[in-house]
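Good morning N.,

You mentioned wanting to compare the apo and holo forms, so I went ahead and generated the holo version with flavin mononucleotide. This is what I fed in:
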Amino acid sequence: MRVQRVGPYPIAKPPPAQRLIGSLLANKRLPRHALLQALGMLQYHCGWISPNHLSDLSRFAKLSIGEIKGIIEFYHFLSLQPPKPYCIYLSTNIIDRWQRAGLDLSLLEENENVDVKQTSCVGMCDQGGSLLINGLPLTGLTQERIEKINDLILRQEPLSQWPQDWFTVEESIHVKGPLLTNSIQPGDALNKARKLGEAGFLKILQASNLRGRGGAGFPTHLKWKACIDARGDQKYIVCNADEGEPGTFKDRLLLTSYLAKVVEGMCIAAWMTGASRGFIYLRYEYIYLLEKIQATLSACREQGVLDSATFDIEVMLGAGAYICGEESAMLESMEGKRGIPRIRPPFPVTHGLFDKPTIVNNVETFCNIAYLADDGLQAFIDNGNAGSRGSKIHSVAGDCERSGIYEYPFGSTVKEMLHGCGGEQAQAVQVGGPSGKLVLRADFDTPVDFDHVSSSGSFMVFGPGRDLKLVAQNFLHFFKDESCGFCTPCRVGTQVLAQHFDRVCEGLESQHEWELMNDIASLMGQASHCGLGHTAANPFIDWRDNNVTADSLSAKPEFIPVFDLAKATAYSRSLREENHDN
Amino acid sequence: MSLLDIDERLLDLIEKVEFGRSPINDIKVPGACDIGLVEGGLCNEDNVRTLNEFRENCSILVAVGACAINGGVPALRNEIDLKDCLETSYLTGVGIVDAQIPNDSELPLLLDKVHPIFDAVKIDYVLPGCPPPAEAFLELVTAVIEGREPNLGYQLRRFD
Ligand SMILES: Cc1cc2nc3c(=O)[nH]c(=O)nc-3n(C[C@H](O)[C@H](O)[C@H](O)COP(=O)(O)O)c2cc1C
Ligand code: SF4
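and this is what came out, ligand included:
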């Protein structure tokens, strides 16, 4: 797929679906797993999935229109509504909101030529105020720029004619550690690993105690061993580039500037397991990187690192769903379905993509593999501590002087990191995104590692003036918006927490509601189907534990109705008066 | 009404309880009472007033059935604008004769959304189900009379 700048919509003559998705068709058939990819392409090029395209897809894929609609409705970025000439997405992440705080966007909201919609974090927290327009990131927003954008939109100027520097995403690396400084000659990491032999490298991997960088911190050597041992005529290697945790953008950097290393990491995995195909599952928000990624993959093929006869890598696009970062939901999504987490066990290492043994690792984990193979065990374990070896790349954003990318050894304290980014004044830091942990000033000596406070890479700094209650509220709404809806504790629980926490923010909540929220929060932790539900109450729990005491609770009224009778009947009263007048 | 499913055991129960306001005896104003069983969601202002009266008069208030607990089927209208809802029901829907929106000032005003009853008052117990099983009623009332916590076994709480 070519990532030209598209817009204004509708594009002059919407080509038939065949033209846009031809590369996915095999004998005029659209394989089931290619359906989501086809939808993503149609959405990107046409701004929606039109009824014509819908029936084309139904014919090619031999699926009912209803079934296809069911998939479209699952993903935020797929739409069945005819688009306006432009479509803007604003990130709801608290950091992005603050960055846009001084800007007046009402111009755009009132502009008839553009739909202004909201979405969860788009991975641009270090880029100043930003937005997505027709799928592409536009950064460094100022009031002046907004006015210019508004003019261009009014004139329906094609996106390709807009000032191209508006679309640059800066690489903001502030501290480089071993991972970001090491440079690998193409093929070297793989060759060095090969020299050690499978068993040899697995031993190194075990000795390094490398743990997954995607959030859960599962020991990589155990995952790989299980996949090596699993029986299957076909195995797959999947790189998780969904990077959905609000405040995280370190995978964006790795995909932009360090992809060759990621590829080598994947090649090592393929060689160890005998997998012949690999995939990078790229979040739709990063579609602007697609061409660059494909160019790097081509370069790797030319250099012989990738060899289509033994192992090749393709990119698959997501379509806007935080839950698709969860590995089993991601596999469903890659098979062209709604991204609903699978029941585990069996785990992907034995029953993964298309039910075949599959290794799923985060982008940064694969980078670490390549680094470990290239620089050796000693260099790797020189960083970090016993429980958490190596270094971690952090996406630092919020109230600090230098937001951007920082690589620190595991075990660095929150205080050290704040010192590095000029955020010493902070009252608190959210480590690991909304599903992570809020660390207050008194605890800034806490090390960031797997044994203390673990991080998927998001590090949001909250200055002294910020109201942490509003931060918790923002996170709870994030989970409410992103719950996949499959299981009741999470689908209902995230709604209930968001709804009643809104009342906490207004100071209107009762003891009864606290009881309800407490019950729901612990129920979600125990009874949810996947990790999203297990952690979705964390912002509530953190806020409660830091702020609510038995005394403050007993000062609350026992019960308060959640609606006001006069207000709730105002509308029907006005309808009645209208009718009487007629 | 599904309380009546307890069949002949109603006779034993009557020995122990007296019915205040209920569909069985058509008393309109509730007096002081030990247990209030409330079914249905809150659709109009009258529902809210009645519920408040119940809360004031009953020591224990129980939400009975899916609609009282979750809003149920009537709450399907929450996604639809009230005006559209009334027009479809009384003006433009299928099979309507003498189309007009009922507009008598005697009629209670509709709420803009249907609410479960614990949105308006504190609830002590819930009896889930549509309707709840007769055994569940019996267990709840018996437990209250005997002064113990009700114990609704799993079979009384699963509905698939
Ligand atoms: C709700 C949810 C979202 C997740 N999002 C991501 C993500 O965006 N990127 C990622 O690498 N892992 C994510 N994970 C973790 C993955 O399920 C999986 O553990 C990880 O990709 C494994 O790779 P690793 O062992 O290299 O960390 C998420 C997990 C959950 C429960
Ligand atoms: S916990 Fe939430 S996200 Fe996970 S399966 Fe259940 S509803 Fe979906």
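The first strand of chain B starts at residue 33 and ends at 39.

Happy to go through it together on a call whenever suits you.

Best,
F.
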